[in-house]
Design goal:
The protein is an alpha+beta fold. It has one domain: Nonspecific Lipid-transfer Protein, Chain A, CATH 3.30.1050.10. It has helices spanning 3-19, 21-26, 73-79, 91-97, 106-111, 113-121, 123-126; strands at residues 32-37, 42-48, 51-57, 67-70, 101-104. Strands 3-2-1-4-5 form a 5-stranded mixed β-sheet. It comes from Actinomycetospora cinnamomea. This is SCP-2 sterol transfer family protein.
Amino acid sequence: MTSAGATTAVDRFRELSDGDPEIQAHGRYFSCTYLLDMIEHRFLVRMHRGEVEELVTDPGPLEPYDFAIRAGRETWEGFCSEVPPPMCHGIWSATFQRDMTLEGNHLVIMQNLRVLTRQLELLRITGPLG
């Protein structure tokens, strides 16, 4: 994916997330920072009260975050497809059966699980961010 393509997917993800009725209904307390370690890039997502406050492509190594979601190319491509293949349909199945890892503060993940899950489902519209 080209840089322009990655930027377009990132912008589209932000737009969909900020405009999603479910995220807005349940995201009042969704304030955290997390890292998506995707195919060619890493993305730092800063959420504040259910809205994307900042989305940083390839943040520096000292940028703080609450938790990270990491996976290889095959897992992200499956996870981000319109109809995900078996074991790529959610973060738990991808973690238990594939190479996805959830690192960092698991309490923050669990406190925000419904909104985070919905936000990650939006990747099925945008495709992998990078």
